[in-house]
Amino acid sequence: MGRFDNYYVELKGRKSDTLEFSFELDNKFFADIEGEEFQRGAVKAHVVVKKSGDVFNFSFELAGSVIVPCDRCLDDLEIDVETSNTLKIKLGEEYADDGDIVVVPETDGGVNIAWYLYEFIALALPMKRVHMPGKCNNEMTGKLKKHSYGAAYDESEDEGDEKEVDPRWAALKGLQIDEDN
Known about the structure:
Blueprint: E1 8-10, E2 18-25, H1 27-33, E3 40-52, E4 55-69, E5 76-92, E6 96-97, E7 101-105, E8 110-112, H2 114-124, H3 138-147, H4 167-173
Parallel strand pairs: 5-7
Antiparallel strand pairs: 1-8, 2-3, 3-4, 4-5, 6-7
């Protein structure tokens, strides 16, 4: 039995027009999938598959949290995840993914959704993954300040605090552009 056999959805020869699945994605799932974004977490997934003609509409509801490294200090950071996604799959001659519909070979008869589950979680994560101000590893932020190029690194940058503007640029703010020329 393979690592992801539990995530295989049989499509060919289905009797029911609607199927429902529930999955508990745990540390083992994330470690086995060997994704680059994260390898630990606890996410509940609810998947509904509805057949409409020759297309299978997958609806994914995912909720939980994953552990990622903080972009600033590299310590573990827990990020909550809550997302809803859809995927359309149909059976065909050979595998194809045109963006709107994924075609899986009819000879396969189904699809393994493990990687889709992982990707939907990864897409729900914010681009910037940092601890709240003051919560980062002090030793690491100290090293970051020491080795930053130019001005010393300041966590307040992430809080939206404005820095003093270089006086040469401040003088340019007073200039107006005449758009009629």
